[in-house]
Amino acid sequence: MIKVGIAGVRGLSAVRGFSCIEDVSVEAFCDINEQLLIAKAKEHNISKTYRVFDDMLAADIDAVVIATPMQCHVEQALKAMNAGKHVLSEVTAGVTMDELFWLCDVCEKTGAVYMLAENYCYTSQVMQIKAMVEAGLFGELYFGEGEYLHDIKNLARYPDGTTSWRSYWQLGTRGCFYPTHSLGPVMTWFKAAYPDERILELSCYGTGSHVDKNLRQDDTTLTLIRLSNDRLVKIRVDCISPRPHNMFGYSLQGAAGVFESARGLGDAAKVSFARDSGGRSQQWRPLTDFDEYIPRRYQNATPEQKQSGHNGGDFFIVQDFIDAMKGNRKPAIDVYDACEWSAVAVLSGISCQNNGRAMKMPDFKNGRTFEL
Question: Which of 7, 135, 316, 361 could form a disulfide with 30 if both were Cys (CB 3.0 to 4.6 A apart)?
């Protein structure tokens, strides 16, 4: 039996997923809010509760889910791996370049499984596009874009009016502070076509503050990312502007076809392929015309797996983590991808504060050097 401990109330979203795997049990829950800790442990039938993370690590568990505020992720991941536990970490992986280097070092030293829980990569639509990339439908890829548009100004303070951690570590920073939701799916597609693909450099620009002068984060940031062979990715993050939430804004352009996600108000995800044009102007087709490319495990997901969240995506992410622990596969988003994608936040902040200066991305897997 694999025993799991969860740190942070957000991590409880994984409980249903773990419960669908017969040889896995969530044994422990840790949170600093004692009232919430007791109530949620009772709700989810978790027998052991802890207010101190180190105390939970001393318990009889094999792995931890880290779902605490982002500035805690690396410290807790390092403690867990050094204690012989495997780690499934919420995004982002870390908040400084030094932290990301430490994370790679300790993961390599301990041999622990580390996986980033970027669940946007696990939506059925992202997996469908990935399968279409692998089938060659889009041809040679050269451009992708992702957007995370989510007004979270209300989260700058807790319900009691006190300042929240987001005021400092998210809305109090410059640059693309939360890149992985928008970047992860796009990189998943590029790496499906080019397994060794990585980010070489990036530049970030911000609009400045127009909506709330008390927040240091720009209303919108645009980050332009250069990959190998001059392939490009454009990322927009906007957590301040007054607008509807758009959690799924992506496009992918290849030499043979293009994908665009829905933009709201009745729009639908769509694709277009040069092969269908017959020499005429290309037309859009609904993505649903290609539903045979939805991975079979999503098509065959049980009701219990779907109820875990994101139509089964929240189950498959924990299933892949457990399979990696068992040695049946590599982590879907390993420590090197986790650090590279998270480093976009750090480097974009430096770029944004230096008029869009191009910042080189370290190769986290092969020689971790950092150049300004």
Answer: 7
